[in-house]
Known about the structure:
The chain is mainly α. Helices cover 67% and strands 10% of the residues. The longest helix is centred in the N-terminal third of the chain and has 30 residues, at 23-52.
Amino acid sequence: MRIDRRESLYDELLRETTSTRSEFDREAIEASVNLALTYDVLQSYLFKHLNLHGLAKSSFNLMALLRHGRPEGLQLSDIGELLITSRANITGLVDHLEQKGYVKREVDALCGRARALLF
C-alpha cells in the first residue's frame, strides 16, 4: 500500500514538473524519479528483512564489509574508518553481531589488536 501511494505521488510530481519542459528534460526527470523510487522500494524491502533478524542497516554494512574484505577479517579501527563511525559504535555493533552468531572477534597475534570476521 505505502509503495503504491508513493509511486502515485512520484507520478503526479513528474507530470507537474515536466508539463512545461522539453521532451528530453521529461525523460531525464522521469529516469531520475524512477531511480529514486526503485532505490526506495529496494531499501524498504532490505530493511524489512533485516528487521526480521534483529539487524539494522549498520549491521548489514558491517557484514558486507567483512564478506568482501580480507579473509582474516578487519581490525575494528579499520571498520570504524570504512563505516565512518566511532570506535565505541563499532565495538557495540560487533558485540551485537557476535551475540547473534554472525561474526566472531579474534585477537591479532602480531599486533594484539582485535579484528572481526564473519562466521
